[in-house]
Amino acid sequence: DVKVTQSSRYLVKRTGEKVFLECVQDMDHENMFWYRQDPGLGLRLIYFSYDVKMKEKGDIPEGYSVSREKKERFSLILESASTNQTSMYLCASSSQTEETQYFGPGTRLLVL
Amino acid sequence: GQNIDQPTEMTATEGAIVQINCTYQTSGFNGLFWYQQHAGEAPTFLSYNVLDGLEEKGRFSSFLSRSKGYSYLLLKELQMKDSASYLCAPYNTDKLIFGTGTRLQVFP
Q1: Chain B: residue nearest A39 by CA?
Q2: Which of A79, A106, B42, B103 is most buried when burial is the number of CB atoms within 10 A of its CB?
Q3: Given an 8 Å threshold on Cβ–Cβ distance, is B94 in contact with A90?
Q4: Residues 6+ positions from A26 with CB-CB distance below 8 Å
Q5: CB-based contact (8 Å) between A61 and chain B?
Q6: What gap in Å lies between CA A109 and CA A21, rounded to an integer?
Q7: Which residues have C-beta within 8 Å of that of residue A25, sequence separation ≥ 6?
Q8: Strand, helix or coil at B70?
Q9: pLDDT band (50, 70, 90) for residue A2
Q10: Distance between the two ends of chain B, CA-based, in angstroms?
Q11: Which residues in A lie closer than 8 A to residue B101 (C-beta atoms)?
Q12: Residue A97 contacts by C-beta under 8 Å, 6 or more apart in sequence?
């Protein structure tokens, strides 16, 4: 079974803090994705990566950055958290040969 | 532009059949995914259609018409545990494009 884990289920941060969300997958997948999910808006792609050290902007990259130093780990960074970044953050991974994305349990982030 | 349209909410009775429709307009198209998401949990994969037609997998079936930009998810013999959101997601080259999802409530 594919397993995608995220570092925290719930996180509370203050405005202006730097926030790190970690995602690890154990299936040797090349592709990794970060989404946020908000009521009425669905899942929106923030950043994705097809390989180590590689990153591509998704649909809403503003205010975020990512890091992929190892194949199994993809980190999402909020450089200076703002209240409008309060959301559910979902990480996913997929292989180059299969399009199906497998999701982690999500991190519910509250920025005060 | 890209647009995915599916009903916001649906209700059904345990044991019944329900069909969740999805229409889409995307700049590219390789196939269409359906995911199930229970409240507070991650989306889980249900089906992936590349070719036109119906694909059946147990109680769940998914249909695709590429020429019409239309898909549906058919759930038979509904169970209470099927209460969840169902996400339609066209796949374009390398990205999934998610709709807002259909929240299905199953009543006894």
Answers
A1: B100
A2: A106
A3: no
A4: A2, A3, A72
A5: no
A6: 9
A7: A2, A3, A4, A5, A32, A72, A74, A91, A93, A102, A104
A8: strand
A9: low
A10: 41
A11: 42
A12: none
Report residue B64 CA to chain centroid gap. Answer: 10
- Range with the lowest mean pLDDT among A14-18, A46-50, A98-102, B73-77? A98-102
Tokens standing for residue B80 = 């209470």
Nearest CA among B92, B23, B33 for reference residue A48: B92
Q: Cβ contact (<8 Å) for B48 and A102?
A: no
Output the six-digit token pair for B30. 């390789």
- Taking the C-alpha atoms of residue B54 and residue B63, their distance in angstroms, rounded to an integer, is 4
B86 near B73, Cβ under 8 Å?
Answer: yes
Query: pLDDT digit string (tens) for A4-47?
Result: 999 999 999 999 999 999 999 999 999 999 999 998 888 999 99
